[in-house]
Design a protein that fits this description.
The complex is a heterodimer. Chain A is α+β, with helices and mostly antiparallel strands. Chain A folds into two domains: 10-107, Ubiquitin-like (UB roll), CATH 3.10.20.30; 110-240, Alpha-helical ferredoxin (Fumarate Reductase Iron-sulfur Protein, Chain B, domain 2). Chain A has helices at residues 37-47, 82-85, 110-118, 141-149, 157-161, 163-167, 174-184, 192-200, 213-217, 224-240; strands spanning 10-18, 22-30, 67-70, 73-76, 90-94, 101-103, 106-107. By secondary structure, chain B is mainly α. Chain B has a single domain (2-107), classed as Up-down Bundle (3 helical TM bundles of succinate and fumarate reductases). Chain B has helices at 2-32, 37-44, 48-76, 82-107. The N and C termini of chain B lie far apart (37 Å). Classes of the chains: A alpha+beta, B mainly alpha.
Chain lengths: 245, 108
C-alpha cells in the first residue's frame, strides 16, 4: 500500500489515448484501500475523460473483456489490485499487444476469435436433440485433460503475452490451441480429425516455442503450453498412424 | 508437412548432439596432439567408419539447418510459401552436396 500512495493519496496514471498513433496522457487518480486497475480506468472515464474508450462487462473475472497492458504486463484489470502492480504510485495502462487497436484501451478482438475458429474451436456434437444425455466419466484421463483446459475466459491475455504471436501472424495462438486440445479430448465432439489437421498445419502447434508466457500470465492459471504439447503428441501420433498431418 | 518437418528437425537434432560432441572432441585431440593435415588424412583415408560418421553428420545437418532457417525466416520476415520452401530445399541440397564432397575428399 505504501508504494501506491506516493503523491498525497493520489496515483499517477498514464493511459494510452488514440489508435496506433497516439500518446500517453497522465491523470491523477485518488488512491483507495481496495482498488482494481479497472476501478482506476473507470474513475478516469467518469471524472476526467468521458471519451475514454475501454471494454468491460462483468467486473468479477468471468467475461474476459477487460484485459489491458498494465505496467508492461497483460492483465485482467477487474481482478488486478492496484497495490500489487503500481510502482511508486504509478500505473501505465495501454491496450493489449498483438491485436489491432480501435480506440484508447479497446482492441479489435476479431483476429483472436477468427483464429479460435480456424483452430476448429467450435463444438460440433454428434448426438441429436432426442439422444439421451451422454454419461461422461469425470475421472477418465481424456476428460481430465479436457477439463484442465476448459475454463478459458477468452480474455486474450495469453495471446497478448505470446512472442510467437508477435513474430508469426499465422500462429493460431495459445488460447485457440488450448481450446482445440480441450475439444480433441471431448468424446462428444464430432470433428477431432479436423482439429488435429488444423493444429498440424502452418501456424499450428508446431510453431510454438514453448516460452511459457501464456502460462505465466493466464489469469485463471491454465496451462496452454501443456495443451499445445498435447497437440504436438497427438499430431505425431497421427503421422505415425498414417493420418493426414 | 509441418508435423513431418517438426519430427525431422527433432530427430536430426538427436543425431547431431552426440555427433557434434565427438566432432569437437576430435578437433581438440587433433590439435593438442599436434597432428599435421597429412597425418590426419592418413587416418581418415579409406576409413569406412569415419566416412559413415561424417556422412551421417552432413546428412543430419542438411536436414536440421534448413528447417530451422525456414522457421526463423517465417517469423522474422514476410517470406513464406512455396518460394521459401523451394529455397530451403535448395539450401538442404547444397549443404548435403558440399558436405558429402568434403567427406569424400578426406576419405577417398
Amino acid at each position: 500500500m505504501s508504494d501506491m500512495r506516493a503523491e498525497n493519496g493520489h496515483l499517477r496514471v498514464s493511459i494510452w489515448r488514440g489508435k496506433s498513433e497516439g500518446c500517453f496522457v497522465d491523470y491523477q487518480v485518488p488512491a483507495r484501500a481496495n482498488q482494481t486497475v479497472l476501478d482506476v480506468v473507470t474513475w478516469v472515464q467518469r471524472h476526467r475523460e468521458p471519451s475514454l474508450a475501454y471494454r468491460f462487462a462483468c467486473r468479477v473475472g468471468v467475461c474476459g473483456s477487460c484485459a489491458m497492458t498494465v505496467n508492461g504486463r497483460p492483465r485482467w484489470t477487474c481482478r488486478t489490485h492496484v497495490g500489487k502492480v503500481a510502482r511508486d504510485g504509478r500505473l501505465r495502462i495501454e491496450p493489449l499487444r498483438n491485436l489491432p487497436r480501435i480506440k484508447d484501451l479497446a482492441c479489435d478482438m476479431a483476429p483472436f476469435f477468427d483464429k479460435w475458429q480456424r483452430a476448429g474451436g467450435r463444438f460440433k456434437g454428434t448426438a441429436t436433440r432426442k439422444a439421451p444425455m451422454p454419461r461422461l466419466d469425470p475421472s477418465s484421463p481424456q476428460r481430465r485433460a479436457a477439463d484442465a483446459a476448459i475454463e478459458c475466459i477468452n480474455c486474450a491475455v495469453c495471446y497478448s503475452a505470446c512472442d510467437t504471436v508477435a513474430w508469426n501472424p499465422d500462429y493460431l495462438g495459445p488460447a485457440a490451441l488450448n481450446r482445440a486440445w480441450s475439444l480433441v479430448n471431448d468424446v462428444r465432439h464430432g470433428e477431432q480429425d479436423a482439429i488435429v489437421a488444423a493444429a498440424a498445419g502452418a501456424g499450428g502447434c508446431h510453431a510454438c516455442h514453448s516460452h511459457g508466457s501464456c502460462v505465466e500470465y493466464c489469469p485463471v492459471e491454465l496451462e496452454p503450453t501443456a495443451s499445445i504439447a498435447g497437440l504436438k503428441r497427438r499430431t505425431l501420433r497421427g503421422l505415425l498412424t498414417g493420418g493426414d498431418t | 508437412m509441418e508435423t513431418r518437418l517438426f519430427v525431422l528437425q527433432r530427430a536430426s537434432a538427436l543425431l547431431l548432439a552426440p555427433l557434434v560432441i565427438v566432432h569437437l572432441g576430435m578437433i581438440l585431440y587433433a590439435v593438442r596432439g599436434g597432428l599435421t593435415a597429412g597425418e590426419i588424412l592418413s587416418r581418415t583415408q579409406g576409413s569406412i567408419g569415419w566416412g559413415a560418421f561424417y556422412g551421417l553428420f552432413v546428412l543430419a545437418a542438411s536436414l536440421h539447418a534448413p528447417i530451422g532457417v525456414r522457421n526463423v525466416l517465417r517469423e522474422w520476415t514476410a517470406w513464406r510459401g512455396r518460394s521459401l520452401d523451394t529455397a530451403m530445399l535448395i539450401l538442404a541440397l547444397a549443404l548435403a552436396a558440399t558436405g558429402l564432397r568434403a567427406v569424400w575428399a578426406v576419405i577417398a
